[in-house]
Amino acid sequence: MARTTRSAPTLSDVARHAGVSLATASRAINGSETRTVGEELRRRVIDSAQSLGYAPNANAQAMARGATRTIGVVVHDLTDPYFAEIADGIATAATEHKLFLTLATTGNKIEALGDMVTALDSMRVRAIILVGARWKDPDLHRGLHTSIEQYVRRGGRVVALGMDFPGVDCVHIDNEAGASALAEALVGRGYRRPLLLAGPERHSTAAARAAGFAARMAELGHPIPPTHRIGSDFTRTGGTIGMRLAIEAGLDYDVVVATSDVMALGALHEASRSGVQIPTDVGLTGFGDVSTLIDVRPSLSTVHVPTRQLARLGLDLALHGPGDGNGSVTVEAIPVLRDSTPPRTGA
């Protein structure tokens, strides 16, 4: 079908016409300081662009060639030490590359991600790193995908840390395996009746951690009844509320397993307020191993997520990755048992 004058060809059109990825088409037309395209492939893309009448954008060429020195980073909640540590790690690594950082936060409003990408796009940042979880909401995905596609079309790169997004280079955390290993470690210490503070069901990180832990507990012969799986916000307040609900319901459990460290801290506060002694009465674990846990008493068992490694991998993908999802990597999450989960004698 012939194109109307109101519908100018886009870089996506060129990529489809040439049979290449959007990232390859961008490198072929806009150039790149880090990755080059073979002459035969570049010629095919250029021929498609000429055939369609596509005119490259000067700003896109500047971004693709590394003319800008700013990296955009979007996190959900800067008051959460987990996100703060990753943002600080990216800032440190960016400084080593003589790059600047523009930091934005959604304030835990996942629907704001698309708007953040659009805003950073207008600032002509060289790359955008999205830090946080994916929510199971097709409408949100469509809006975010549109913003990302427009930014990539102009020559930018997007990397996701801790979330899975089609066509985008990602740094994955093996949350399910880490949670499964935590279940094994707790059973090895004599725990049999966990209370799982699972976080929101639509939150991909919380869901993966809860699923990995529950599945392994069932395999080990200690399935978690529905009454002992409580959903709440993925925040300190969420942990407080989840713990309060369990105490008010008079549930019987020997360890509280929170799917994030901040939730565990909320649970610890509520337990103390309600006269539940940790670890004498019940054990407690978190997930993440943020540095501020050094000040918590008793020292908190958790699952270590290497935030500094995440940050460096994310920036490296933003600068040198393929930009089409093929550069995605996965990092391990490893249980660390401390004073909050001592061995249960006579279990």
From TrEMBL:
<keyword id="KW-0238">DNA-binding</keyword>
<dbReference type="Pfam" id="PF00356">
    <property type="entry name" value="LacI"/>
</dbReference>
<dbReference type="Pfam" id="PF00532">
    <property type="entry name" value="Peripla_BP_1"/>
</dbReference>
<dbReference type="InterPro" id="IPR028082">
    <property type="entry name" value="Peripla_BP_I"/>
</dbReference>
<feature type="domain" description="HTH lacI-type">
    <location>
        <begin position="9"/>
        <end position="65"/>
    </location>
</feature>
<dbReference type="GO" id="GO:0000976">
    <property type="term" value="F:transcription cis-regulatory region binding"/>
</dbReference>
<dbReference type="InterPro" id="IPR010982">
    <property type="entry name" value="Lambda_DNA-bd_dom_sf"/>
</dbReference>
<keyword id="KW-0804">Transcription</keyword>
<protein>
    <submittedName>
        <fullName>LacI family transcriptional regulator</fullName>
    </submittedName>
</protein>
<dbReference type="InterPro" id="IPR001761">
    <property type="entry name" value="Peripla_BP/Lac1_sug-bd_dom"/>
</dbReference>
<keyword id="KW-0805">Transcription regulation</keyword>
<dbReference type="GO" id="GO:0003700">
    <property type="term" value="F:DNA-binding transcription factor activity"/>
</dbReference>
<dbReference type="InterPro" id="IPR000843">
    <property type="entry name" value="HTH_LacI"/>
</dbReference>
